Amino acid sequence: MSYELSHLRELEAESIHIMREVAAEFENPVLMFSGGKDSIVMLRLAEKAFAPAKIPYPVLHIDTGHNFPEVIDFRDRRTAEVGARLIVASVQQTIDQGRVAEETGARASRNRLQTTTLLDAIEEHRFDALFGGARRDEEKSRAKERVYSFRDDFGQWDPKAQRPELWNLYNGRIKTGEHIRVFPISNWTELDIWQYIADDNVDIPSIYFAHKRNVFERDGMLLAENAFVERMEGEDVFEELVRYRTVGDITITGAVESSADTVEKIIEEVAATRQTERGATRADDRVSEAAMEDRKKEGYF
Amino acid sequence: MSEILRFATAGSVDDGKSTLIGRLLYDTKSIFEDQMEAVERTSEKMGSEYVNLALLTDGLRAEREQGITIDVAYRYFATPKRKFIIADTPGHIQYTRNMVTGASTADVALILVDARNGVIEQSRRHSFIASLLRIPHIVVCVNKMDLVDYQEEAFNKVRDEFREFAMRLDVPDLSFIPVSALVGDNVVDRSDKMPWYDGPPLLSHLETIHTASDHNMVDVRFPVQYVIRPMSDEYHDYRGYAGTVAGGVLKPGDDVVVLPSGFESTIKSIDTFDGPVDEAFAPMAVTIRLNDEIDISRGDMICRPNNRPTVSQDVDAMVCWMDESQTLVPRKKYAIKHTSRAGRVMVKDINYRLDINTLHRDEEATEIKLNEIGRISFRSTLPLFIDEYRRNRQTGSFVLIDETSNATVAAGMILGESAG
User: Fold this and answer.
1) Which of B28, B211, B244 to mutate to test the interface with A (most CBs of A within 10 A)?
2) Where are the beta strands (DSSP E) in B36-166?
């Protein structure tokens, strides 16, 4: 008998350890769930961490209102399956309350507005720990973020004043009004996520698999034809065989041309790809070198 | 062989560390086109003559603007044989705490030495930190071999010098590889310019380092992290103790003792979501059920009756101080986190402060400042279940937390129970 774990089982064990630690040390944790593959894996890990008991915290979805319908169906089905309480915080409601103003124009997006909705939800429900599905391989500022990422009472991240994090000892001490963003899958890569989905038969929304869709091209990305985006001149709609590498707000999430219609084919594709998933599919990160860092400092996911 | 290899690198821009990491990432095709384009754009904007691979790892605005690395960056790459996690830390003395952080989870320390300069203060410091944090394998890359005409003598000189110094440290596995990160000699592909070197290039070496034996498989240590009670009809009487194995191998039927109560029982089953398992070992996260109903809660430790950790309130330890706003002084109280146990401690004494460049012990020291390392003794309000750090990196480590600011102020490595 050799006492070794496969890389997926080692990553799994590390994530489960973090999820249990949070359940033990915080009063009011919540798991942020977008319906994307990373949060789906995170939900599965939470299920594993507490079996045969139910996940001891609710699930939070920040709903921009600009969703892929397949993803919302999936969200409702999956949270019901694991028996978790689903809290939906709506960006539309934040707009209706006059807390933020809708952006206008062809490039309008609700991406940035989500931060206010999220921070309002944290205050309303008094969450002290929020699980996020961010990975360090996704983006440069995330590569330097802790597993337990401290946020002050304005929800802000201060990259220069992060708590040192050693061994598997996490410092979750906070004062009232502050909270911790917890990233249990920090050390997973995009490929690890897909391999795990294959290995564990994890169910994912249909839009991850190749399908025919009406799209138009903007800034070198294929955006879905949808009711929320004004198309500009020259942005003609055409049908293409595509799939999504990431799942987010429909107005800014690009599809990639692909014929991968099984998890195995997706793994082959991901292993061979020469573009990062955010670079290929997220308009919001193309703004500047530090776009993600700046949003995170304001309290973004 | 464990599939994941975690390695720590420390160094500054000029010793070629970023180039080496960039080379590993680039040659294993782990750098994506859009990342490379962004780096090329930024290098050009900053007026740099060559593509600055350091920009791949320096992620924060301040770092890019000032051309410095201020924190630990984690990078990932994989080969068909292994998955690698790099903890990339800055090398200057003012970043000792970052190095200690990166080293705490590393299986391998990668140390770069400039073949022209030989072993310098910085190399000694990095090696000392690697040995203090018990990184089991140190790989010394003698870099810039292209600048010394690929001469064996230059390599041998550095190697001998390093070995002599390392004898004063506790390094279980030390190896040397002559490389040129810039040109790519012996990084991923074997160099044909150094026929005198018969070892593997760096990547093959990293792919084959045997790390599974680095876990403690002898002393059973299971810190209880969370008690699982489903409160459902189906699992009415279920009571499971969830945690991550910190040492040894646990099997159903094993006799165990629970600390601090001292109650003994046997393991009924070891459960996971995917079903019960026949055995559990580090670093598995499992749920243990016992055959007797005993009161067990978070912070308790399950081990074997004939092999227990030391139970003590008085502990000697090496600490690295990590806080800039205050120093460590005797009589001060802190919160401690040790395995799943949380309590309070009071620093009793500073035995000495260590000069990490010369290894000189200053026994007159009255405080330990940011980035300094020293030996202290403290008293804990709760008994702790401790092992010597060199025997178990999990049950031998702790952090101290300031009770007012909540900052993590120190990383500690346990030496043992205080004498007297």
Assistant:
1) B244
2) 73-78, 83-90, 108-114, 137-143
What is the interface pTM, i.e. ipTM, of the complex?
A: 0.93
Q: Which CATH superfamily is domain A7-192+290-297 in?
A: HUPs (3.40.50.620)
Write down the residue that tokens 């790099």 correspond to.
B86
What are the tokens at B137? 């394998």
Which residue of chain A comes nearest to B59, CA vs CA? Answer: A140
User: B408, A275: Cβ pair inside 8 Å?
Assistant: no
We report the CATH number of the domain holding residue B263 as: 2.40.30.10
Residues 203-232 of B with CB under 8 A from A: 212, 215, 217, 225-226, 228-232
- Write out the two tokens for A255: 């599809």
The reported pTM is: 0.93
Q: Compute CA distances B133 → B107, B113, B347, B399, B412, whole Å.
A: 10, 20, 21, 13, 10
CA angle at residue B276 from B274 to B277, to 5 degrees?
100
Taking only Cα atoms into account, the Rg of chain A, rounded to an integer number of angstroms, comes to 19
Give the gap in angstroms from C-alpha A240 to the nearest C-alpha of chain B: 23
Query: Is B25's Cβ below 8 Å from some Cβ in A?
Result: no
Overall domain count for chain B: 3
- Other Cβ atoms less than 10 A from the Cβ of A106: the count is 11
Question: Closest-CA residue in chain A for B101?
Answer: A166
Which of A14, A50, A168 lies nearest to residue B228, judging by beta carbons? Answer: A50
CB atoms within 10 A of CB A219: 9
CATH number at residue B47: 3.40.50.300
User: Do residues B296 and B174 share a domain?
Assistant: no
Q: Determine phi and psi for B253, rounding to 5 degrees.
A: 95, -15
Q: What is the pLDDT along chain B (420 residues), one digit of tens a residue?
A: 568 999 998 766 567 787 888 888 888 877 777 777 777 777 777 777 666 666 666 666 666 666 666 678 888 998 989 999 999 887 777 788 888 999 999 999 999 999 998 888 888 888 999 999 999 999 999 999 999 999 999 999 999 999 998 888 888 899 999 999 888 899 999 999 999 999 999 999 999 998 876 788 999 999 999 999 998 888 988 999 999 999 999 999 999 999 999 999 999 999 999 999 999 999 999 999 999 999 999 999 999 999 999 999 999 999 999 999 999 999 999 999 999 999 999 999 999 999 888 889 999 999 999 999 999 999 999 999 999 999 999 999 999 999 999 999 999 999 999 986
The reply to whether B54 and B111 lie within a common domain is: yes
**Residues within 8 A of A (CB atoms), B 372-401 only:** 393-394, 397-399, 401
What residue in B sits closest to A188 (Cα-Cα)?
B76
Domain boundaries, chain A: 7-192+290-297, 205-286
Contacts of A289 in chain B (CB under 8 A): 38, 42, 61, 64
Could you tell me if B285 lies within 8 Å of chain A, comparing CB atoms? yes
Which range of residues forms the domain containing residue B24?
4-213
Within 8 A of B33 by CB-CB distance, chain A residues are: 274-275
Instruction: For residue B399, list chain A residues with Cβ-Cβ distance below 8 A.
Output: 164, 166, 169, 171
**DSSP assignments along B178-238, one per residue:** E-BTTTTBTTTB--SS-TT--S--HHHHHHH---GGGS--SS-BEE--EEE---SSTTTT-
Among the partner-chain residues A20, A136, A290, the one whose CB lies closest to the CB of B74 is A136
